[in-house]
Amino acid sequence: KAGVTQTPRYLIKTRGQQVTLSCSPISGHRSVSWYQQTPGQGLQFLFEYFSETQRNKGNFPGRFSGRQFSNSRSEMNVSTLELGDSALYLCASREGWNTEAFFGQGTRLTVV
Amino acid sequence: GQQVMQIPQYQHVQEGEDFTTYCNSSTTLSNIQWYKQRPGGHPVFLIQLVKSGEVKKQKRLTFQFGEAKKNSSLHITATQTTDVGTYFCAFKLIFGTGTRLQVFP
User: Residues of B with CB below 8 A from A33's CB?
Assistant: First the structure.
C-alpha cells in the first residue's frame, strides 16, 4: 500500500501571495487532517476532512482553508501569506477519526 | 477545546540513562496515542492505550495510561542514540506539545 503523499515537498513564496498544498491519503482512508509544525509551537491542528466535508477545525484564521475531493485527496490553501506562515505543513491520513494517523513527509513552506 | 500538555519540553540525557515524558489532560480521555518524530522526519505512530491503568511495553519503551485516564507516560530504559527525536502524545486529532529528547554518546 502506498503511503501518504504530499506535494510539493518545498515551496518558497512571497508575502501576500497564496499557496495550495496537496495530500493524497492512503487508499481507503477517508479522514485527512492537516497540521502546522513550527519549532516553538509543536503540531497545531488546522482542520480535518472526512468524505469531502470539513468535520473538525482548529483555531486558525480564515486565510487557511481546505477541501477534500471524492477520491479523498485533499488540498490546503493559504491566502495572503504572512512571514509567520513559514512552517512544515503535515497531512495525516486515518481510517477513522480516532485511529492511528499516518503522516506524509510534509511540505516545507518558506514565506519571504 | 481539548488540550494535552506534555512535560518536559526538552530532555538531554547521556546514553544509557533513562528518560520519561509525561502527558496530562484536564479531561478524561477515551484513549491516548504516542508518536515519535525523528529530526527531519514526520511523526510515526508508536502505540495506543485504551484501558484505565494500562501498561504496554515495546522493547525498552514502557507506556502507561493513568487510572483516571487523564494522564499518560512514556518511559525509555537505557537510552540509545537511536532514541533521539520528539515524542508526542495525542488524543484524537490533537497532539501534545511534545518532548524533544537528545541523547549524548
Answer: 93
For B87, counting Cβ atoms within 10 Å of its Cβ (0-12 exposed, 13-18 middle, 19+ buried), the class is buried
Give the residue from B89, B91, B57 showing the smallest Cα distance to B76: B57
The C-alpha atoms of residue A53 and residue A48 are separated, in whole angstroms, by 8
Beta strands per DSSP E along B1-105 = 4-7, 10-14, 19-25, 32-37, 44-49, 55-58, 61-65, 71-76, 85-91, 94-95, 99-104
Q: Which of B37-59 are b and which e, b meaning 16 or more Cβ less than 10 Å from the residue's Cβ?
A: beeeebbebbbbbeeeebebeee
Residue A41 or A9, more confident: A9
> Which of A43, A45, A56 shows the shortest C-beta gap to B88?
A43
The length of chain B in residues reads 105
Q: Give per-residue pLDDT as tens, B64-90.
A: 999 999 999 999 999 999 999 999 999
